[in-house]
Design a protein that fits this description.
Elements (H helix, E strand, L loop, with lengths): L20 H12 L6 H31 L4 H17 L2 H4 L1
């Protein structure tokens, strides 16, 4: 397994999945490209990536909900603005230009 697979092979279950011919061609293409050893590895990595993306989405939704429910106060916004200005002013811009 060459591309960051996180499953443990000693603790696996076999499943049967129906896919379209196009999906099967995509699986085979990914294997032929050399990043994955076989179709099963592609599927395992895809499941991990999908779950990771869903967790990120759920975290983002919770963050948005929290910030919506408890927005920054004007004082907090003013402090954040002042900190941003200070960090920009501290940057050695002449070094980059």
């Amino acid at each position: 397994m060459r591309v960051g697979t996180v499953c443990e092979m000693s603790n696996t279950q076999q499943i049967a999945v129906r896919v379209t011919v196009r999906q099967l061609e995509m699986l085979d293409w990914l294997v032929v490209e050399g990043d994955y050893e076989n179709r099963a590895e592609v599927v395992r990595v895809a499941i991990e990536e999908l779950a990771r993306a869903k967790r990120r989405e759920a975290t983002a939704r919770r963050d948005i909900e929290a910030y919506t429910r408890y927005p920054d106060t004007p004082e907090e916004m003013a402090r954040a603005h002042a900190a941003a200005i200070a960090s920009i002013e501290e940057e050695p811009w002449e070094k980059w230009w």
